[in-house]
Write a structure and sequence with these properties.
Elements: H1 2-9, H2 27-33, E1 42-46, H3 48-59, E2 69-73, H4 79-83
Parallel strand pairs: 1-2
Helix pairs in contact: 2-3
Length: 89
């Protein structure tokens, strides 16, 4: 809820798409089916698996559309963010 509260406090319009399988194994399907023209960015809240599946899903879109990606590390290892020198604290 902290993320949602911060977005609302800053008047940022957003939609939440939650994965149903752990760890984010259906993120690729969610991204492939998302209506990209409605959005200006994707914020991934999760770990390495969720990041991996989201990016791969975007690259496999039949329309070729992409969006900027932001990362909020929330996994058990967070190696992807650590490798990018992105704070995982």
């Amino acid at each position: 809820m902290l993320i949602v509260n911060e977005l609302r406090k800053n008047n940022i319009v957003f939609a939440i798409k939650e994965t149903q399988n752990q760890p984010g194994l259906d993120a690729d399907d969610i991204i492939k089916q998302a209506d990209f023209p409605r959005y200006s960015a994707i914020i991934i809240v999760g770990g390495d698996g969720t990041i991996h599946k989201t990016v791969n899903g975007m690259l496999q879109r039949s329309d070729g559309l992409t969006l900027p990606i932001g990362l909020l590390p929330n996994g058990s290892g967070n190696d992807t963010c650590r490798g990018l020198s992105y704070s995982t604290v």
